[in-house]
Amino acid sequence: METNAFDKLLRERLEGAVEPAPDVWEGISKGLERRHRLVVFRRWSIAVTAAAAALAIALLVFRGPRTAGPVDAPVQTAQANPATQVEQPVVPEVAPVQSPAEVAPIQDQIRQFTQRQTVAVAQKPVVPATPAVEEQPVAETPAVVAETPAETPATVAPVQDKPADEPSGLLTQDDLPADYWDRQEREDTQADTHTSQISILSNLTTVSSEGGLLYQPGAMHASSQTGKGQATSQVEPLATSPKFFLPVSLGVQADFRITDRFSIGTGLTYSYLVSQYDMLVDKVLYEGAYNQLHYLGIPLRLSYHFVQTPHFGFYASAGAAAEKCISQRYVYGSNTLHEKVGGLQWSAGLGLGVEYWFVPRVGIYFDPSLVYFFDNSQPLSIRTQQPLQAKFEVGFRFKI
Amino acid sequence: MRETSTYTEADLISGCARGDRNAQRMLYERYASVMYPVCVRYLGREDAKDVLQEAFLTVFDKIGTYKGEGSFEGWMRKIFINASLMQLRKSDVLRRTDEISETPEAAGTVEHGVLEQISTKELLDLVAGLPAGLRSVFNLFAIEGYTHAEVGELLGITEQSSRSQLSRARSLLQKKIKELYNGNKRI
Q1: Which residues of chain A are within 8 Å of residue B16 when distances are taken between CB atoms?
Q2: Chain B residue whose CA is closest to A21
């Protein structure tokens, strides 16, 4: 028989169907289930992070108008009142208030003053009031000031003897010390900024990806290491065509004010990294195997708050983190393999941040930063391949 | 649920692309018996089962990339052949076989009618019993229809090596077929 005829006949005979063992589908089914779970987890992580980012942006863009509180009102009135401006030269003669105890009586009067001013503005009885102020000779002003409780407790008595609703006996805006509102604002801010904060955070780390969620370097220089010295199986990643999925982190962090401007923060973070590459397991090649890494980390960072308002804060921070790989899992075909990873992953970073307090004790924040992951013999991942990364952290903050 | 046979190939492909487990199961049932012999020819029964699983997972993963150019079975077959060759490469058997210089004694031609007396299963086992390199060259050239240049590229060997290995594979296979035929006759 000619070789061509032999080949043709053999080909025809070999085309016959042969059924594989019945348990093959079970293995395929398990493999599909595992891949499905991985995809679902990845989608949820991305969705949660995107929702948090969208919420943060929405609150920043669509926040409602800030309503003026009772403490703010007199300040605005004073700025709008020309009479006050005329009489301001008198104020330097007032002795500065020395202690909160001394300020307390005057605050009571300010509240009454504020209420009166608010009512007065609402009912427009301003016209008779203003000439009264204007008619007062400048020379008399020290006498009025002399009656304020800021001078001495003794001068408070005549004021208190007067009926509470008698306008002429109450403090006016110009009776206040020149730096009163500055002091008040400073004290308010300090009361706010000296509060400790708890943050619930999530972050995404960028990779220099060309294809969306995947980082696929064009050329690799070396196969990377597996967990240093603690491998229980002969696993060797082949860095021929690795793909790295976006790392996702979640965590809780507490910030403590150490001065007006500086705070120090620490907490606990969890990071999940997924890579896909070919690898040899006990010298058997598996294409497109998955490597899943779970890290727990403790960050430490120092922040400098250069802008602080009741609603907004801007700050710069520098810090470091130590992360321990608590689980490493390889998924190849229908098999899985767990491997211990020794050592710690150290990183250092610099960043800027913005926080927005939409209610007095609850806020959101956004921290873009640059993080460098040091070479600490950790398993092949985006961190070993691209040590310098941009990180975008978003989260909620609670003042405690 | 419809019978498997009432689903068209396009139905199954689109179902698998959506991740529909029923469609995946039906696709498996339709093609497993066709693709399994492909793997056996390259690897033998023992490894063929594992590669069959791996390759089906790859098919379900990549099925969205099938654009309808060429037959779907041909597209699948390439995946199974590649998976089988990958399995051979990882154990380094291809290079070891390339080093075999021994040429089997000429077995003479196989008479007409001899192949008909041997079952498909027996023939598969005969092919699978060839040394890995010879088996791969024979499968790629004689069964799949690749040229020697393509075989050389796929296996990382020269064209000349492909030709000589094919010749050795044919001789060895014919010898084994004769032995099997004679053995069957005695029985």
Answers
A1: none
A2: B49
Q: Where are the domains of chain B?
A: 1-91, 97-187
The continuous run of DSSP H or E covering A256 comes out as strand A248-257
- Chosen domain end from A140, A173, A189: A189
CB-based contact A81:A134 (threshold 8 Å): no
Task: Report the gap between the CA of A47 and the closest CA in chain B (Å).
Answer: 20
**Could you tell me if the ipTM is greater than 0.90?**
no
Show the tokens assigned to B119: 């079952």
Q: Which of B33, B37, B142 sits opposite A7 (nearest CB)?
A: B142
Phi/psi for A338 (5° steps) reads: -100, 145
Output DSSP code: residue A92: G
Q: Hey, which residues does A14 pair with through a beta bridge?
A: none
Cα(B42)–Cα(B134) distance, integer angstroms: 10
> Is this prediction's pTM over 0.80?
no
* Under 8 Å between Cβ of B126 and B177: yes
Q: Of A49-53, A63-67, A373-377, B42-46, which has the strongest mean pLDDT?
A: A373-377
Do A132 and A263 lie in one domain? The reply is no
Tallying the residues shown for chain B, one arrives at 187
A171 lies in the same domain as A301: no
**Which H or E element spans position A241?**
strand A235-245
Distance from C-alpha of B60 to C-alpha of A27, rounded to nearest angstrom: 14
A184 within a domain of the structure (yes/no)? yes
B12 Cα to chain A: minimum distance (Å): 16
CB contacts < 8 A (A, B): 101
Residues of A at the B interface (Cβ-Cβ below 8 Å)? 1-3, 6-7, 9-11, 13-21, 24-25, 27-29, 31-32, 35-36, 280, 283-288, 333-334
Residues in chain A: 400
Tokens, residue A97: 């208030």
Q: Do A285 and A246 belong to one domain?
A: yes
CB A389 within 8 A of CB A207: yes
B151 dihedral zone (left: phi>0; alpha: psi -120 to 50; beta) = alpha
For residue A185, the enclosing domain spans 72-189
pLDDT digits (tens, 9 = 90+) for A200-219: 766 666 554 333 334 433 33
**Do residues A378 and A247 share a domain?**
yes
Domain B97-187 class in CATH: mainly alpha
For chain A, how many structural domains are there in total?
A: 2
Give backbone dihedrals phi and psi of B131, rounded to 5 degrees, phi first.
Answer: -55, 145
What class does CATH assign to B1-91? Answer: mainly alpha
**pLDDT above 90 for A326:** yes
Which of B17, B53, B8, B15 minimizes the C-alpha distance to B35? B53
Contacts 24+ apart (CB under 8 A), A67-71: A70/A111, A70/A114, A70/A115, A70/A118, A71/A114, A71/A184
